[in-house]
Amino acid sequence: MTTSIHITALDGVVNVNSLFTFAVFVGLAWNPRDPNNSLILDQTCTPDSRVMEDMISFHIYSFSAFLFSSLVALGLKQAIRLSGPTWTTSAAGGDHDSFASFLGQVNKGMVRVGMLVSGVGSVVGCVFLMLALINVVQIKLGTLSCASGSGHSAAAIVPLVILVPVALLIYVSIVLYAFLRS
């Protein structure tokens, strides 16, 4: 039972990381009907090249963290499946699953640490993706420090910097609870 829960949790990590990785690539490639790649009306609000460089860097860091997390989760899942249940034959001739033998083959401590490391990778990826999106907003709507254009930029960024950290706090709390309880 516990091992199937671990495998399901690892599948969830890989699926979510895949969605975020897709979002990274869409964020780098998306340019809806905007040949200048911005919606800035006041040219004094145009960000410098450092903001654009940071956006690309944060996208790459995010991708790397999600890939790391997914590879750790897939490796754990594969290790759990490879050390899968051994089938024994009972005296009556019927096959049954020797669950006790299966649990003895899985190093529960390594699974817990691996799941924790995978969760940390996902959190780091989300933080870098949020930072990249903040830079996307500045590129599209104007820098946050610009007096005339910052209202739209701030309005776009405020929900991002509130909702993402709250969601990450909930995620980390649940992962730590599961880590301490398993």
TrEMBL record:
The chain crosses the membrane at residues 12-30, 56-76, 113-134, 154-180. It comes from the Eukaryota. The keyword Cell inner membrane does not apply. Keywords: Membrane, Transmembrane, Transmembrane helix. The keyword Membrane applies. This is Maternal effect embryo arrest 60.
